[in-house]
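Write out this protein's structure.
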Amino acid sequence: MLIKRATDIPSSEITDEKLYRNRREFIRNMSAVLGVSAVGTILPACASAGEPAAQQAAAKAGKYDTSEAKTPEKYVTGYNNYYEFGTGKDDPARSAGRFRTSPWSITVEGMVKKPATYALDDLLKGIAVEDRVYRMRCVEAWSMVIPWHGYPLASIIKKLEPTPSAKYVEFQTLLDPNQMPEQRYDILHWPYTEGLRLDEAMNELAFFASGVYGKVGPNQNGAPIRLIVPWKYGFKGAKAIVKIRFTDKQPLTAWAESQPREYGFYANVNPQVDHPRWSQKTERRLGTGLLGGVTEKQTLMFNGYSDYVASLYTGLDLRKNY
């Protein structure tokens, strides 16, 4: 059984449905002019956000929170990359509704002192739930601000006790073509696999999210548990995780395997390293422009989290190790 830690959203933060629909229609009509399309080409996954954003009341910021305006819930949960449920941005919200997230278990294996298959509640038992508002950056130049809640990854790893030989941690998504219909096709090599260096995974920003906006996360956002690494591009965020493996070898990750020239293992947000098909120097922040459209912003190194993570890469050539 999943742990439910839900709180209702204040009515002041909910966009009126009529306003929402009018804004959606406006942006749909303007997309051809602005070059903003809700239907992306095949690009790596991130927990994408959506279009408009109303003025939002400022909440008390936590230690890790950005002070930037949050992307409203309706759009965070309605415009997603999740290729197991389709390559269109609206496919996951439309197709993932019947995905079963309970009961849920995670297998822990490899170079770790406590290998086992854990019920999700047991794995998280004793670890306090935290709320964090993170900037999120998609490799295709979309960006958003999402209020997650969940668990510090370092706390989970400490509980599992990796051996001294462990240098990396690998995460795998569920493989179930009956529930995830796009796994019947070789869009990627399934199951979706991601990985971090162990010191990256132990960084205080790394997070296992179980929900958004104070609610248990919807299926299209990676329920029941997903990886959040806010200084990296969104494709690092493996969803519906069922396996954690500790190893001394760098894991072969899904996008690095599929298109190694474009998507490296590190995936650090670096505006000085262009994607082979576009610049990474700027980003389009969703929900901040005219009538909730987009605003172009300068991309920040490590997505603005340099103070927390830059020391992890001292001496590493970040152009070669992209």
